[in-house]
């Protein structure tokens, strides 16, 4: 009987470890397993410069959403964003692709406007600023095209 209780306790310990690893991988990967609250909007950029699915969306440095999909539409990058349900955006919001640090990850920064109309679920942000291409800036500086 003693051996049986030892095997059961080891089994419970291993199961708890597997569940903890699964929970951590979901949380650190910032995945949503059970539904997703909020609403979805999209924005078109001429150049996303390394933005990836799962990148953060911020307003004033506060995380308010995630990039859920990136596709090509009429030679423009169409970026779909899942916003938190409590965040309301005016229809003149500006979406900019920024970099955390000099060579850090890309994210979308939203600068809300002053319009009375809100962007609804499935709406589009029309005012966008593409990512800055540092390689092009450096080459222009080196070759005197600044």
Number of helical segments with 4 or more residues: 2
Our measurement of the CA-to-CA distance between the termini, rounded to an integer number of angstroms, reads 82 Å
| Poorly predicted residue ranges | none
H/E series: HEEEEEEEEH
Strand content: 25-35%
Radius of gyration using CA atoms only: 22 Å
Spatial order of the strands in the main sheet?
7-1-4-3-2-6-5-8
Helices and strands: which structural class? alpha/beta
Q: In this structure, how is the largest beta sheet organized?
A: 8 strands, mixed
- Count of DSSP E strands? 8
Q: How many individual domains?
A: 2
**Overall geometric form:** elongated
Detailed description of the structure:
There is one protein chain. This protein has 146 residues and is an alpha/beta fold. The protein has 2 domains: 1-31; 39-140, no CATH class. Helix content is 25%, strand content 33%. The protein is built from 2 helices and 8 strands, in the order αββββββββα. It has helices at 2-28, 134-142; strands at residues 39-45, 56-59, 62-73, 76-83, 94-99, 106-111, 124-125, 127-129. It has an 8-stranded mixed sheet, with no helix packed on it. It is elongated, with a radius of gyration of 22 Å. The model has no long low-confidence stretch (mean pLDDT 84).
């Amino acid at each position: 009987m003693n051996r049986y209780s030892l095997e059961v306790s080891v089994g419970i310990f291993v199961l708890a470890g597997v569940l903890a690893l699964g929970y951590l991988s979901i949380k650190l990967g910032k995945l949503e397993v059970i539904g997703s609250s909020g609403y979805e909007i999209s924005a078109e950029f001429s150049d996303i410069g390394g933005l990836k699915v799962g990148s953060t969306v911020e307003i004033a440095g506060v995380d308010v959403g995630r990039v859920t999909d990136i596709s090509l539409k009429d030679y423009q990058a169409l970026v779909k964003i899942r916003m938190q349900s409590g965040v309301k955006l005016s229809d003149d919001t500006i979406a900019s692709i920024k970099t955390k640090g000099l060579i850090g990850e890309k994210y979308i920064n939203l600068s809300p406007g002053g319009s009375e109309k809100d962007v609804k679920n499935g709406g589009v942000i029309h005012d966008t600023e593409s990512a800055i291409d540092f390689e092009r800036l450096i080459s222009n500086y080196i070759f005197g095209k600044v």
